[in-house]
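Box 3.1. Reading complex inputs
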Amino acid sequence: MDTISQSFALALGMVAHLDPRLTQIVGLSIAISLTSTLCSAAIGLPLGAAVAIARFPGRGPVIVALNAAMGLPPVVVGLLVYLLLSRAGPLGEFGLLFTPTAMVIAQTILIVPIVAALARQIVEDAWVEYREQLRSLNASWRQSTATLLWDTRWSLLTVLLAGFGRAASEVGAVIIVGGNIDGVTRVMTTAIALETSKGDLALALGLGIVLLTLVMAVNVGVHLTRQWARVRFG
Amino acid sequence: MGDAEVIAGLPIVAASIAVVRRGTRVLDRIDLTIEPRSRTFILGANGAGKSMLLRVLHGLIAPDAGSVTWGRQTTRPVNQAMVFQRAVLLRRSAAGNVRHALALAGVRGSEARRRVDDALARVGLSGIADRPARVLSGGEQQRLALARASALEPEVLFLDEPTASLDPPATRAVEHIVSAIHARGTTIVMTTHSLGQAKRLADTVVFLDAGRVTECTDAAQFFAAPRSPEGRAFLEGERL
Amino acid sequence: MKRLVGGLVVVLGLLVATGAAAEQPFIVVASTTSTEQSGLFGHLLPAFTKDTGIEVRVVAVGTGQALDIGRRGDADVVFVHDKPAELKWLAEGNGVERYPVMYNDFVLIGPKSDPAHVAGGKDIAVAFEKIDKAKAPFVSRADKSGTYSAELRLWKDAGIDIAKAKGPWYRETGSGMGPALNTAAGMNAYILSDRGTWLNFKNRGDLGIVVQGDKRLFNQYGVMLVNPRKHPQVKKELGQKFIDWLVSPHGQQAIADYKINGRQLFFPNAGTDS
């Protein structure tokens, strides 16, 4: 209990004084998780929509695989990306290991299944409503996926939020491919891991409180946006 | 209404159409011709297969037996449109919905803007062009669906019980719009529950009973003296 | 859709730009958790950057993993504390030359209750014997780190075949020094730690130093450049500058100057035969 109250005090202190190391770490965390979310959206939304609409042999197993991949263990993904990006690995020549880019790559791989699987569900439900009308209007597959993705945009925002939450809170992948380098690849979660391992539990928990507040704020923002959209667009 | 180059997708000829669902013949050996510029109404009891027949004629559903040809084409022509019982509208403005349909048909820019404005004006929705389509009333939504369809300048317009969920004033508005669309050269194929509506708008009646066409005749003729026992029974029942 | 792709390109571009903007020359050093978690790097590296303008990016993992990172060519320099492992690594052609840099010592940490009665002793082998006899809880890092290698050597010195003798009292956590200390604090167990990490460690519970000062607890650190002939992209000039600085009088003095609570942690000994 003592540690917990200490942590709240620490957290408030850090935020109030805009501790420069804290702002650097928070900024990097947001940048990396946001970039991963956007990359995953670019890949996962069209993928999910395509699977929702297309009918092809093996569609059932693909959907099962997508849903299962939502539970990919971050540390395993981190290890695989590490082996890929290491100088000794196939993509070594790009020198991406221990950089924020490697962290974005690892997190994107983790989030794409989440975005694709959830988008598929949402788009498929919308497809049931729009299918006949879109076919009557002679929409091609490509036009139909684009139409559905835009039409379900507010629900998809929640999907992206789920992806962002996963990215911002994972540590297993980014600590391996980023190396937790001070000032370069240290983010909130890896900083918490480091302070914990140094036994500075109050500071670790304080950072944790800041992280939770951040994720909470993003959630509230999205929720309010959806309320507004519901009223505005029906 | 269309360029001289557009290959006419009329008449629509259905030959020995059959549609089977779960072992039952929902449509059975149907032979039917939709003539250019006609106003054909498909009548029948619930479950007779009206909606199914409409979709086969529009090309949304492929028959399990027999064939449909549109003019000389064996594949569905693009210049047809369909309006459903409940308007299917996107989460956009009213004008946006019409623009979207035109974009799908490859019409953009100033030509699209012109058609959107004209289509909305013809159905009396110019005032709410920028309102989100899904917050409109049922009647307004159906008029918007008609505006969208007419903006495409279709050769044939299919309507599946478009006024079934509307009140009398909204129903009348829709009927006026359908008449106006027909007056501009579009062929109409429609289903309805309302005999009054059919009497007001139809020039041809197709009567379906349990998936079979028992009558296909001039509307006045059908309402005065139906030739088939099923047709007669249907009109008797309605009079009760 | 076009807007989404456009936005993505902008963001990626920003990321690349920030990466490019940070184009101060830098090297990647694979080192151990003890050098980072004791706070030494926080003190030493800014001094080096001030002198040379070279940024040092430290990936702090266990000795085993640090040597593996060097073997793969993912770092320019390795800075660890396990001489036998380092020499083996050199023999395999992974590095250029080994320079001793500094030493500190290990200490045996134990609970106040001291079930094995080792507190105050000066002989680490005797202490280990007593712990084994008492089957007192003992936390081992068991993670190919320099500390773990030292621990194994000490069991051998005590005449104990730990692979056979270990029982439920011997807890192998497979983790870094900090997490292992956390575990030991939680279990009230004995644990071998480097003095630096211990002095900087905050979650001590009932633990304290019980044995220290034995010559066998001596812990030597060495630094090596990754072999540029094996990995052409290694920054050999910048890396060598770092090594040269560490063993220079200026660097050695900076190491000696690092103190926690007035107590010096690391003792420079470059140029010696360690």
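In summary: Chain A touches chain C through 36 residues (CB under 8 Å).
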